Amino acid sequence: MSQAHIEQTGGGTLVVRGALKLDTVAALAGGIDFDRLNGSQTQIDLSQVEGIDSAGVALCLDWISQAKTAGVEVKFFGLPEQMQRLVSMNGLDDLFFKADSL
């Protein structure tokens, strides 16, 4: 699995690539400046994530918190199957699955 990184597409969607695991998420903790994003909504594509654990889910929860503070709504889509299971097991469906239908 490769080191995780974030890319911004021409349409403004943020694409996360690589693994979101305990040893990779620290590098991404401040990787999105929600205060500088244009608009009131940001989409984060997780379809290129190669693996995720609870630290990766925690990072996404932190992004939700940062976005809320900045007045930005964050929508996730392309959640890997492993993340879907972790989210459901922890009762976080409302935070993530509402956005997966984009």
CATH architecture: 2-Layer Sandwich
Gyration radius over CA = 12 Å
**Treating each run of at least 4 consecutive H or I residues as one helix, how many helices?**
3
Q: What is the structural class?
A: alpha/beta
Query: What is the strand content?
Result: 25-35%
Number of domains: 1
Let me know the CATH homologous superfamily.
STAS domain
| Oligomeric status | single chain
Give the CA-based shape. Answer: globular
Helix content: 25-40%
Poorly predicted segments: none
Instruction: Report, as a whole number of angstroms, the end-to-end distance.
Output: 27 Å
Order of helices and strands: EEEHEHH
Number of strands: 4
Strand arrangement within the widest β-sheet reads 1-2-3-4
Mean pLDDT, to the nearest integer, reads: 87
Q: Under the CATH scheme, which class?
A: Alpha Beta
Q: What name does CATH use for the topology?
A: Transcription Regulator spoIIAA
Specify the biggest β-sheet. 4 strands, mixed
Describe this structure in words.
This protein has 102 residues and is of the alpha/beta class. The protein has a single domain, classed as STAS domain (Transcription Regulator spoIIAA, 2-Layer Sandwich). 28% of the residues lie in helices and 27% in strands. The chain has helices at residues 54-69, 81-89, 93-96; strands at 5-8, 14-20, 41-52, 73-77. A hairpin with a 5-residue loop joins strand 1 and strand 2. The longest helix is centred in the middle third of the chain and has 16 residues, at 54-69. It is globular. The termini are far apart. The mean pLDDT is 87.
